[in-house]
Amino acid sequence: MRGNPSNRADRLTATLTAAFAPAVLRVTDDSAHHAGHVGARGGADQGDAGQTHYSVLLVSEAFRGMSRVARSRAVHAALAAEFGAVEAGGMHALALTLRTPDEHRTLSS
Known about the structure:
Blueprint: H1 8-20, E1 24-29, E2 53-59, H2 68-78, E3 93-99, H3 101-108
């Protein structure tokens, strides 16, 4: 991917930052916890070998007024290029925590 960060976590961070202007963004690579799982295989030729499972905490004003399903769809749409066949280096799993700043303040207290 010329011009894009080669590390998937960096690409996820850059894409989500551009799309949602987050107040808080935490991207965690959970791939090591899934060793041996069929989705844990990555495409070595893609530079993303083993980078298949992620958790994301994203707090953004952009989610105000959106349902949980709409938030998830928006994030999946923004990250669509990262998904695909695991054998070709595609991301396999994405756990999302998506909040508005008000929700985050309330839930973090």
